[in-house]
Design goal:
Elements (H helix, E strand, L loop, with lengths): L6 E5 L20 E2 L2 E2 H11 L4 E6 L5 H4 L5 H9 L3 H10 L4 E6 L6 H6 L2 H4 L4 E4 L3 E5 L5 H12 L2 E7 L9 E9 L2 E9 L10 E9 L2 H8 L10 H11 L2 E5 L2 E5 L3 H13 L2 H17 L4
Helix pairs in contact: 3-4, 8-9
Bound molecules: uridine 5'-triphosphate (UTP).
Length: 296
């Protein structure tokens, strides 16, 4: 697919406190979705949408994220010798998905601080931003980030993924306010961080995927620390709206937040049930557990 946006940034430096103690020594972006780490899904989504250069923002102690995409000579040799060709091919593919570079966020001062570190990498090019702990399952043939790229190609402006959330979840997300201009595309006026359901301007939540013009970096330089004393990407996007048009795209797909306990478990159950070899035995076990707990 020919694509004018070929750079992607994946912030993956955060502490992951919601998944402690697991995340004390293991990066949360390596949390498995069945047998594949979250970060691999995210990298594959970017590559499927045309990314060839990917910058992953990591922090000290999260070097395993880098190792996951490096050659493992002994392992590959063993897989080849023992005739495990499919696995061998999968391991080899991992080493050549895209040009991956890694940069350290030394002070974990928020998502805004992480994305700001991509300024030199992006230069004067637009870039995709994909949160490293969220898997997006697309309902269309385009990956979710690819859906945003289509909007970018039309308007040459920044685009934010939006998905509808139920009232009880509104206060967990950034909620977008905008005018519907075309199908699922909105011209955004405002973003409200974690409003109460009563005060929210709607039910469209910011959904872990963005395409930004280079203007985002000037905005990231101007913002001050916000909620939790961190540099909030949302604040920079709001500032960007004052100087450039910013669009929202109601995505066709589902978001899985692997950085929360409930999200991690629910996503694993759902993805495991899609595997023909696991479906029956796992399905039966789940039904039995629910019956034992009087939930079913
Ligand atoms: P989260 O908002 O989930 O924050 O980050 P967190 O600190 O990682 O996790 P909790 O809330 O303490 O459990 C969303 C994405 O942004 C990255 C994270 O690694 C994650 O992939 N991030 C967050 C950074 O790269 N740097 C930061 O300073 C904060």
């Amino acid at each position: 697919m020919s694509c004018p946006v070929f750079k992607a940034v994946i912030p993956a430096a955060g502490f992951g406190t919601r998944m402690l103690p697991f995340t004390k020594a293991v990066p949360k972006e390596l949390i498995p979705l069945v047998d594949t780490p979250v970060l691999q899904y995210v990298v594959e989504e970017a590559v499927a949408a045309g990314a060839t250069d990917i910058l992953v923002i990591i922090s000290s102690g999260k070097e395993a994220l880098k190792h996951h995409f490096e050659p493992a000579v002994e392992l590959e040799k063993r897989l080849k010798e023992s005739g495990k060709t499919a696995l061998f091919d999968r391991m080899l593919n991992l080493n050549k998905l895209a040009k991956l570079t890694f940069v350290y966020q030394h002070e974990l001062d928020g998502l805004g601080g992480a994305v700001r570190l991509a300024e030199n990498f992006a230069g004067t090019d637009p870039c995709m931003v994909l949160l490293g702990d969220c898997v997006m399952d697309s309902f269309s043939e385009l990956p979710v980030i690819g859906q945003l790229l289509k909007v970018y190609e039309q308007y040459h402006s920044s685009v934010i993924a939006l998905s509808e959330v139920p009232p009880e979840k509104i206060s967990s997300y950034g909620i977008a306010a905008g005018t519907l201009i075309n199908g699922d595309i909105l011209r955004l006026h405002d973003l409200v961080e974690k409003p109460s359901a009563a005060d929210a301007p709607g039910n469209l939540a910011v959904a872990a995927r963005y395409v930004f013009t280079p203007g985002i970096f000037s905005a990231l330089h101007k913002i001050t620390r916000g909620v939790n004393n961190e540099f909030q990407l949302t604040d920079a996007v709001k500032l960007l709206m004052a100087s450039e048009a910013v669009y929202g795209c109601r995505i066709s797909g589902k978001r899985y937040d692997l950085g929360s306990i409930a999200g991690f478990i629910a996503a694993n159950v759902e993805f495991a049930l899609r595997r023909p070899e696991l479906q029956e035995v796992l399905g039966r076990q789940i039904i039995n557990i629910l019956k034992e707990k009087n939930i079913l």
